[in-house]
Amino acid sequence: MTLRALEVSWTRSGRLVLDGVTLDPKPGSTVGLLGPNGSGKSSLLRLLAGLDRPDAGRVLLDDDELHGIRRRQVARRIALVGQHADTDLDLTVLDVVRLGRIPHRGVFGGDPAADQAAIDHALEAAGLTQRAAQRWHTLSGGERQRALIASALAQEPRELLLDEPTNHLDIAHQLEILTLVRELPVTAILALHDLNLAAMFCDVLVVLNQGQVVATGSPAEVLTEQLIAEVYHVRCTVEATGEGNTSVRFLRG
């Protein structure tokens, strides 16, 4: 079992942003949340992270109600990497990654050996071991994103939530970040805009539109010309590229 949302609905500022959404990922899978701006992707991630409570429906971690679990325990299982993160503090990469160990520290502190092992592993997984002493403000966009993911990995989560992890990155860094996420031994749920990247790296795609799930399945099952036209209001061609993947090419006009 893993993190699930069952028929969740949520109203924010008087607007219904999620309407009966169910998400039930297979443990260890990579799930892509797709949909136009305002479709509910970020809102769903907030509910899954326990930052907000649904008005209706249930969010379960294994078989337990998420909001019935202590926040520290949730943070040891679920890590969220949001869209925007910056700081004016003079932090190093190591400082940022260390923040991920906070949920594992009790009243009398944590286990220094376990903390160091988790931090070292997170830095290595994110390819940042040699940059541990580098200052945050000197990092490129891709390096900052990797540092945030490393901080999340230091939490030692089993579920990793990422909101637009490739936003504002060049193509090389987009591929680098998604390759890293794909290879992690976690259940990963990612909100993405790029349909082709979603098809390349995700096992399952969930398409949201106006707060409702309109399609769920493999990239080949979900990314059809008809669905893309209905949800995104654009014309495209979709071609099979093997191994159940597809390639989307958008058309002018």
The low-confidence runs, each spanning 5 or more residues with pLDDT under 50, are: none
Strand content: 25-35%
Distance N terminus to C terminus? 45 Å
Number of helices: 9
Report on the structure:
With 253 residues, the chain is an alpha/beta fold. The protein contains nine helices and twelve strands. The strands form three sheets. The chain has a six-stranded mixed sheet, sandwiched between helices. It has a four-stranded antiparallel sheet with strand order 2-1-4-5, covered by helices on one side. α4 (112-125) packs antiparallel against α5 (141-154) and α5 packs parallel to α6. The longest helix has 14 residues, at 112-125. It starts with a strand and ends with a strand. The model has no long low-confidence stretch (mean pLDDT 92).
Q: Secondary-structure blueprint of this entry?
A:
Blueprint: E1 3-12, E2 15-23, E3 30-34, H1 41-49, E4 56-61, E5 64-65, H2 71-77, E6 78-81, H3 93-98, H4 112-125, H5 141-154, E7 159-163, H6 171-183, E8 187-191, H7 195-201, E9 204-209, E10 212-217, H8 219-222, H9 225-232, E11 236-242, E12 245-250
Parallel strand pairs: 3-8, 3-9, 6-7, 7-8
Antiparallel strand pairs: 1-2, 1-4, 4-5, 9-10, 11-12
Helix pairs in contact: 4-5, 5-6
